[in-house]
Amino acid sequence: MLHRLSAPTPLRLCARASSLVKPAPFVVKNFSITPLLENMSDTKSTDMLAKLFQRSHVPDMTGRPFIRTAACLIIGDEVLNGKTQDTNSNKMAKLCFEIGVELKKIEVISDDVDEIVEAAQRLSHKYDWVVTSGGIGPTPDDITYSSLAKAFGDEPLEYDDETLRRMSTGIQHIYGTITESENVLRARKRMALFPRGSEVLFPTEEYWVPVVRVNGNVCVLPGIPSIFEALLKGLPPYLRLDPDMPKPIRRLIHTNLPESMISPLLENLTKMGKKDGIRVGSYPKWKAGVHISLVGYDHMLIDKYTQMVVEEIGGQPVDV
């Protein structure tokens, strides 16, 4: 008996668990494969899969360079044409701030081999750590893995057995036995086809989806925000972070005064900040005053600058 699924996705079949009773075995033959990695952050789903999957062993980081700078490469026509709003770069920025890595570049490019090759090579050479988002599903426009293979040594693509195993386990756990057509099976297996020599990391118990590290410093993540975030949060143990690198401190002060009235103060603070290592920024809110941002590494200096702002313009510290 053939059961046709509404807008099915192979990755959803693999990665998303359900609290429902497993259906009887069914056959999946020819259905349209849609953009992947959607709506898979259900709490019950991830709790169930957490019992199936384990995190990867953390490798020995000795000899690897410290990660002090980073770049985020968003890959997808859907972002550039306005269909999808990028939120993953914001998650990347927040994580970098938390772990003391300076995010230097956020770039958005199309699903184009030459674009991906050029950007990946340039960013990998210039920054210590690069995270990509998008283009790793089973559809023809998912070309991130093959493009990165071309970018770094023109390596052939190889199936990763552990990823295939986890993928299959996820499907069977949710849907029982599924008989797939050759076309569907081939498309699904593309999501486990990585450049030879890549590191395959499983930094979270929530999903079978791996993080594939190419060229030593390029980490490939999916585009769907919930999975991107889960994988990203699990990555720090797999990065060599400098233990002596101080974590940045951010302080926000709000004032009801318009930005034009506090411009002289901001100019003075900016000049002082260059000497003291304090970055000063102002972020006006329409008809609601201004947030003044202070970012630095010295608690005493941050407190000093905060007090100056409060006294000069009657500002009020805001919880970050």
Low-confidence stretches: 1-44
Q: What number is the mean pLDDT?
A: 85
Number of helices: 11
User: Which fold name fills CATH's third level, the topology of the largest domain?
Assistant: Molybdenum Cofactor Biosythetic Enzyme, Chain A
In the CATH classification, which architecture of the largest domain applies? 3-Layer(aba) Sandwich
This entry's quaternary arrangement is: single chain
Shape: elongated
Tally of structural domains: 2
Q: What CATH first level of the largest domain would be assigned?
A: Alpha Beta
The largest sheet, given as strand count, sense and whether it forms a barrel, is: 6 strands, mixed
- The fraction of residues assigned to DSSP E strands is 15-25%
Radius of gyration: 23 Å
What is the count of β-strands?
A: 14
Question: Quick one: CATH superfamily of the largest domain?
Answer: MoaB/Mog-like domain
Estimated helix fraction: 25-40%
Structural class: alpha/beta
Pfam families: MoCF_biosynth
Organism: Malassezia sympodialis (strain ATCC 42132)
InterPro entries: MoaB/Mog-like_dom_sf (IPR036425), MoaB/Mog_dom (IPR001453)
Domain MoaB/Mog: 71-242
How would you portray this structure in words?
It holds the Pfam family MoCF_biosynth. This is MoaB/Mog domain-containing protein. Residues 71-242 form the MoaB/Mog domain. GO terms for molecular function: FAD diphosphatase activity. The chain has 320 residues and is α/β, with parallel strands linked by helices. The protein has 2 domains: 36-238, MoaB/Mog-like domain (Molybdenum Cofactor Biosythetic Enzyme, Chain A, 3-Layer(aba) Sandwich), CATH 3.40.980; 249-318, 2-Layer Sandwich (Alpha-Beta Plaits), CATH 3.30.70. The chain is built from 11 helices and 14 strands. It has helices spanning 10-15, 43-50, 77-80, 88-99, 113-126, 144-151, 161-175, 182-189, 225-233, 259-276, 299-313; strands at 26-28, 69-75, 102-109, 129-133, 157-159, 178-180, 193-195, 199-201, 211-214, 218-221, 249-255, 279-284, 290-296, 316-318. The strands form 4 sheets. The protein has a 6-stranded mixed beta sheet with strand order 3-2-4-10-9-8, sandwiched between helices. Strands 12-13-11-14 form a 4-stranded antiparallel beta sheet. A two-stranded parallel sheet has the order 1-6. β9 and β10 (218-221) form a beta hairpin. The longest helix has 18 residues, at 259-276.
